[in-house]
Amino acid sequence: MTETSGTPTPRLAATIDEVEDALQSRWPETRLEPSLDRIRAFTEVLGDPQHAFQVVHLTGTNGKTSTSRMIDTLLRALDLRTGRFTSPHVERINERISVDGEPLTDEEFVAAFNDVAPYTHLVDEDQPFPLSFFETMVGMAYAKFAEAPVDVAVVEVGLGGAWDATNVADGKVAVITPIAVDHAKYLGDSPAAIAGEKAGIVKPGAVVVVADQQADVDAVIAERAVEVGATLVREGGDFGVVSRMPAVGGQVVTLKSLRATYDDVFVPLYGAHQAQNAAVALAAVEALLGDQPLEDQLVRDAFAEVSSPGRLEIVRSSPTILLDAAHNPHGATATAAALADSFSFATVVGVVGVMADKDVEGVLAAFEPHLEHLVVTQNATSRAMPAIELGRIAVEIYGEDRVTVVPRLADAIDAAVALAETSGSGSISEGAVLVTGSVVTAGEARTLLARKGRREGPHRGE
Description:
By secondary structure, the protein is of the alpha/beta class. The chain is built from 15 helices and 17 strands. The chain has two domains: 16-304, 3-Layer(aba) Sandwich (UDP-N-acetylmuramoyl-L-alanine:D-glutamate ligase), CATH 3.40.1190.10; 313-456, Protein-Tyrosine Phosphatase, Chain A (Alpha-Beta Complex). The strands form three sheets. Strands 4-3-2-5-1-6-7-8 form an eight-stranded mixed sheet, with helices on both faces. The chain has a six-stranded mixed sheet with strand order 12-13-17-14-15-16. Strands 9-10-11 form a three-stranded antiparallel sheet.
């Protein structure tokens, strides 16, 4: 007898809250069973929608979402209809499934769920384990993309690669962003071990676009490419960032891609890592399209439209408040470097809330040289590290006089704003607040600040 024997046929949802409740009642994203059996059974009963369009498939430790959004924007500039699947969401679950650059509306999201819901119980009853939250979302996305229909789907893995539910699709282009240690419990405790799992998205005959990697990681990816007969193109040799200069609202870069060099490209995102993401995205689009370079002006216009919420995103001014989703040491190091590179704040106060299963010490240490004071807090999820516990760890790194513990996120942001307004030279315009440590923390802060902004009226710089 399976775990789901007797599972009733799910009723259709009327609201997005009902959809989210139904999805959350399934296995959470953090509970994994390494098999593609359930998702294959699900997509088969849905008619294998993942084969109805071309796929650009992305994996890596950091930079996937920003790179996905850049690829999506470039493809739409070429008059191609796109679908985009990313995770986790920053504020609302709709963000995970986009068509033509726009998240599904509440009504569209409910309809997408209702289209697949009648089939979920068939899979549940026939498998040793039920479909998970993430597997159900993947089925919804692929079915919606086929229905639209889209020309190309830009698909970000949820976790890893080989056993990720998204991997039932065959990516014509596989993109591997920088790999570092994260989710060690599931993927391995070294970058090379993790690379073996992530390289599982590389399919026979694909083009593999690889961001700059450690030598041992690069060797693992190259071995996979040879094994399946894929073509490998690497940052630093085949494509890359020629130059970059911080600019108001982002940076101006020169990108060498697979077919041409593109000068004076404005990217409205901060940091060297976002310039790297731009180079990877451009190479991925060229790899998908074939031998012809893109028009210079099309590339400039497309990149000028790119956005990536929660990635060093300025959401308020006086003092400046930035949100960033960095949640591992590699991401925190990139964010800290971008903070120093792109801004000239007299002082920065950090608000940090993290998940308990992360390398907390590594994240805190990466930010330490850049923060005058740290306000530790926690987000609303059950996975959040309690603020008191986080505070004890932070004191070991920052010292007691530089750490304040404020468990409620809204109060923590208010405390940090007060500190930023009185630190340094005392000039409000020279202080800043950085809210970081988790996608969830950044998303909850974004929602809180939007609500507060509506109550108080517009702020300068918004």
